[in-house]
Write a structure and sequence with these properties.
By secondary structure, the chain is of the alpha/beta class. It is built from six helices and eight strands; from the N terminus they run βαβααβαβαβββαβ. It has an eight-stranded mixed sheet with strand order 1-2-3-4-5-6-8-7. Strand 3, helix 4 and strand 4 form a beta-alpha-beta unit. The longest helix has 16 residues. The protein starts with 8 loop residues before the first strand and ends in a 13-residue tail after the last strand.
Length: about 210
């Protein structure tokens, strides 16, 4: 592929990088149609995630998909192949913005059946429109509480909850606060301990 101005695959998340995982991202909130209470404690809205090049890359990715989704798909597929990684996370920032975007994610997963793709998402309505049964086996969608679609979450399928601290995590959950490997591969009930500057904004469910 000829030189281009986009960089969709990111290696800047140290939690992911230590497990050999890279990510493709979108801007927080702007690409999150079902964002709800999570906006108050979204870590991607503060710190390094919200500054300089990171913010610019995400905004550029957003505009590229909006204006030329086919080009976005081709660049993403090219960068994924070039990365040589075997686990790809969609969105350590952002979410599935619409049905066309989820179709694109599925298309890329079908291109590379040897790669495990996964994402945390609050876009449950979009998943239901697409159909769980239509997802490629190597694309794992982890339903994430804290959005407008919480009532649509199917707990028989992978899901994640945010907790204030490790002591609050119930039995049966896999703590993926420090590593995403099990979330990407085997875990069904995933726990994440809230962190960062916005921890004070998190209100645990009663």
């Amino acid at each position: 592929m000829a030189a281009y101005k986009y960089q969709l695959v990111s290696t800047s998340n140290m939690k992911l990088e230590k497990d050999g995982i890279v990510s493709i991202n979108q801007p927080p909130i702007k690409s999150c149609p079902s964002a709800g209470e999570c906006k108050a404690y979204c870590y991607a809205c503060v710190g390094q995630q919200a500054m300089g090049n990171a913010k610019a890359f995400r905004l550029r990715a957003f505009e590229l998909f909006k204006t030329d989704p086919k080009k976005f798909e081709e660049i993403a597929a090219y960068e994924i192949h070039r990365s040589g990684r075997r686990i790809i996370r969609w969105h350590d920032s952002g979410d599935i913005m619409n049905l066309s975007y989820l179709k694109m994610m599925a298309s890329i997963a079908n291109r590379y059946p040897e790669i495990q793709f996964y994402t945390y998402t609050k876009s449950i309505r979009i998943i239901l429109k697409f159909g769980w049964e239509n997802l490629p086996a190597n694309l794992k969608l982890i339903q994430s509480y804290g959005g407008k679609d919480d009532h649509l979450i199917d707990t028989k399928k992978p899901f994640a909850r945010i907790f204030l601290d490790k002591e609050s995590i119930p039995k049966g959950f896999t703590d993926c606060s420090n590593s995403d490997y099990e979330a990407a591969t085997s875990a069904k009930k995933i726990a994440i301990v809230v962190h960062g500057h916005r921890k004070k904004n998190f209100k645990p469910k009663e």
